[in-house]
Write a structure and sequence with these properties.
about 250 residues, homodimer, globular, about 0% strand, mainly alpha, Four Helix Bundle (Hemerythrin (Met), subunit A)
Chain lengths: ~250, ~250
């Protein structure tokens, strides 16, 4: 607005958005930890406390680490594309392992407590998110980290990978919010309408999860925050363009 | 993939995606209608049946009509930009009016039944979505339909309007899913784990709402589905570019 080139001026705000996302992400993990640790009886690998491992693992794995894995392309702007890809895949792998622990915890707890599995909308959405996440991770590995796919196939798949990547972050956050609602109505249905501290804390957690998703989504979709293509990527991008005669983004 | 220019070949699939979104949207409205009409005692403007107006209005207004208002820029590709803008604003206005009826219904019902207002995560998310929707609609009207804003201010606001527009669709769908979970746990908590027909129907509604949001989101973010700029818009876009020296999308 002050005559400075838009892309140069706005890039200065990127660190603030990234820092904001990290503050929000850490706050979500800490509040989930406090909710389950302080209000819901702490953590264990048996009995009712086993359930409490589930929310903590899902928020840490499928939201916070997943979001950070998405952000690496905006944060590491000058490192080689290959290094950033490996970091992206690694963070997603850690997120996957942590979310598997979270899923085992809740299935184990349901089995011990003789509660039906997979009947609620939360479980349907959560499981769909998890299955699509595994599929997306495997496809990403196959298309972008190993040299199996042709350049044209990669350029066709890239926008789909980016779209489904963001969709899965949205679905993860949404599944967490459904889980929060379920947990509150199972635990404090009678006192929830009186704005008890646990209810307000859990609602606040829900809003902070939304804010984390919004900031990450904004950073990765904002045009002038895109990673600048390096010369070799540029050459590859031109090659793609010639092959397909269409518009191909050069980086996710 | 068969040597045909990407943008020409892929544009042929656009009507299928739009048709798919309409089938999904109508299915969501019909299933909500059946759920409230058949399983929850039908509709009225007093007593417990007044609540049932709420889900139907919110799904019809804040999801289906809102989504269609977003889609008009992809569906009406050759009409003047101004006509499409007016249709976009009008559909959003109808969506807004219907959602106000839905909100009055639930607040009235809560007051009559002496239930606290605004204590649940569903109500927090839903109200936030509604307030941001009004704000977005007013800003859109002020920036794009009336000639108050300068060209540079419009070009600065356009990507924000697009981002928040899609975010609000996501938040609407998310709020509906939270509402479905709440309603099921208030109404059929005991039988829900036994996969009763009402529970399965409502869960299916949740997944269809997600599918509607995904298809609309995919259509409006896919690069080669963008509305082609007409000569006068092109000139305006170049004007924007000169002013800001940055990249400015020429249409939402």
């Amino acid at each position: 607005m002050d005559g400075m080139p838009l892309s140069m001026g706005s890039l200065r705000t990127l660190p603030w958005y990234v820092a904001g996302s990290q503050v929000l992400g850490v706050a979500c993990v800490v509040i989930t930890g406090v909710w389950m640790g302080h209000y819901r009886g702490g953590y264990a690998w048996d009995g009712s406390a086993q359930f409490n491992v589930h929310p903590l693992c899902m928020v840490l794995g499928l939201v916070f680490l997943y979001g950070d894995a998405v952000l690496v392309y905006r944060v590491f702007r000058n490192e080689t594309k290959r290094s950033v890809k490996i970091l992206h895949a690694l963070l997603h792998m850690i997120a996957l392992v942590i979310s598997i622990v979270g899923l085992v915890a809740v299935f184990d707890f349901h089995s011990s407590a003789k509660i039906s599995h997979m009947y609620s909308l939360h479980s349907w959405c959560g499981m769909l998110t998890f299955v699509l996440f595994i599929l997306q991770w495997l496809l990403g590995l196959g298309f972008f980290l190993f040299p199996w796919a042709s350049a044209q196939l990669r350029s066709w798949y890239l926008p789909l990978h980016v779209f489904f990547g963001l969709l899965l972050l949205v679905m993860s956050v949404g599944s967490c919010l459904l889980g929060i609602t379920e947990k509150l109505l199972f635990s404090i249905k009678e006192t929830y309408p009186r704005f008890t501290s646990e209810g307000v804390l859990a609602n606040t957690l829900g809003l902070l999860l939304v804010c984390f998703g919004v900031v990450v989504g904004y950073v990765v979709t904002r045009e002038d925050f895109r990673r600048p293509p390096n010369p070799e990527e540029e050459a590859l991008s031109v090659h793609f363009k010639t092959l397909s005669e269409g518009e191909i983004p050069s980086s996710p």
